[in-house]
Amino acid sequence: MATESAVAPGAALAAPAGNQPVSTPAPTTAPAATPAEAPKLTPAQLKAKAKEEKAARRAQAKEVKAASGVQAPTAPDAKGGKGKGKQDGSQAGQQSQKSALAHRPSVSGRRPSFHVVEKDTRSVIPECFSHVPMAKRIPTAHAHKDVHPAVLAVGQQMAAFTLKDSIARLQATLLAFKKVLEAYETPKGNSLSRHFVPHVLNPQIEYLTECRPMCFSMGNAIRILKAKVNSFDIDTPEEEAKEGLLEMIDLFIKERINLAEFVIARNAAKTIEDGAAILTYGRHRLVEKTLLRAKRDGKVFSVSVIDDPYDNGGQEMAKSLSRAGIPVFYSPNLGGLRAEVQRATNVLLGVEAIFANGSLYGAAGTADVAVAAKTASKRVIALCETINFDRERVSVDALTYNEIDPEQNSAEHFRLLFDTTRDYYLNGVITEFESGTGNSPAQAILALLRKQEDPALN
């Protein structure tokens, strides 16, 4: 391929060494072209020249990368020669590392910008159960940057099942939200009623939900809290709004958790008669408080505890009742259910929630106890706070709403944490919002909800 040498202006006037005269050769066809009259390059020559310059830039970049100890990037795109890796090696490496560490993914579904190797615990779950959620421990470094440290701690405790009971999770969440409120400052040009929920509260909720699916009581309480925030006028001073929210949370814990627990235990204790034989399943704080209250009231009775072999909470409750002077019969699993049901006069069940159609949502095994008691014509009473009632959803099986036990999940088997008991197997539900003993049919759930006062509407 022919090449053309470029002559700089004035180069033809330079005299050779020795001051020898310069003989100018006679032109053959035309006089020599001056720089201003240099012929234009053909497209092929332009392309060849561009390739040479591109190769020279690539070689220079490789030399710089090799000198800085960073591996050179891949070759740039063939079109235009403008690749993405044009920075020098050290600067590019530092900036990429900083961007990877500085960006923390949101728990709303975005993947982390840096590679994280995690064991897929759901890979062994059959596809037909893929809709059932499961608790998981999320490293705090992967949480949204706006998640408060108190909420991070609650999420870790819920994922590790240190906070297991629905009411314990609810109370811990509300106390963490109090700390979020105390640390909150409304940005300039915004109002608390418009800014707090989408920009502050929602990231906390997302993180907690990622750690473990939200229980019914948490969902109801968050709905009430959001309604209270939205009820403030846009011109309400920040301090006034924060004070109102903090007071609402304190009142909520006092009335809907502490007072409700006291009233339910008192009303349920009244249903226990002298000489009764009470049957219960696992360990539930409402049932335990009811039995201890009945003992303090001077009732004489015995208790049979059927335990969940995967949880063993009933063993601790049996010890607690025994220390209080209550005769206790303990069965480590459902194998002793039939014999204990025949001995029992009443069955007390503590549950996690109650659906709108009256079905119970309780620890796995609750349905077995209720069905066996109904078959034996025994009285079955459920204990539950109204904050655990669901106004809208119904359930007729244990697969629509449930959780997978992360500790019992392998290629051979997995375990569901809860089951559903149809209202047919219940004789009544004791709550804190009912006159007398609070013993109402499970079908009256919506009527009970209409009677309670919603703090968000005060």
Walk me through what this model shows.
Helix 4 (166-183) packs antiparallel against helix 7. Strand 1, helix 8 (285-296) and strand 2 form a beta-alpha-beta unit. The protein has a seven-stranded mixed β-sheet with strand order 3-2-1-4-7-11-12, with helices on both faces. The protein is built from twelve helices and twelve strands. It is of the alpha/beta class and 458 residues long. Among the domains are: 133-260, Four Helix Bundle (Hemerythrin (Met), subunit A) (Up-down Bundle); 270-457, Rossmann fold (3-Layer(aba) Sandwich), CATH 3.40.50. The longest helix is centred in the middle third of the chain and has 32 residues, at 238-269. The protein has helices at 43-68, 89-102, 149-159, 166-183, 192-211, 216-230, 238-269, 285-296, 313-323, 337-343, 366-375, 445-451, and strands spanning 276-281, 301-306, 328-331, 346-350, 353-354, 360-363, 379-383, 404-409, 414-416, 418-421, 428-430, 439-440.
Beta-strand residue percentage: 5-15%
Extract low-pLDDT stretches.
1-37, 70-117
Judged by helices, strands and strand pairing, the structural class is alpha/beta
Q: Please give the order of strands in the largest beta sheet.
A: 3-2-1-4-7-11-12
For the residues shown, what is the average pLDDT?
A: 80
Architecture per CATH nomenclature, i.e. the level-2 architecture of the domain at 270-457: 3-Layer(aba) Sandwich
**CATH structural class of the domain at 270-457:** Alpha Beta
CATH topology of the domain at 270-457, which one? Rossmann fold
Q: Helix proportion of residues, in percent?
A: 25-40%
Protein name: Translation initiation factor eIF2B subunit delta
Keywords: Cytoplasm, Initiation factor, Protein biosynthesis
Region (Disordered): 1-117
Organism: Schizothecium vesticola
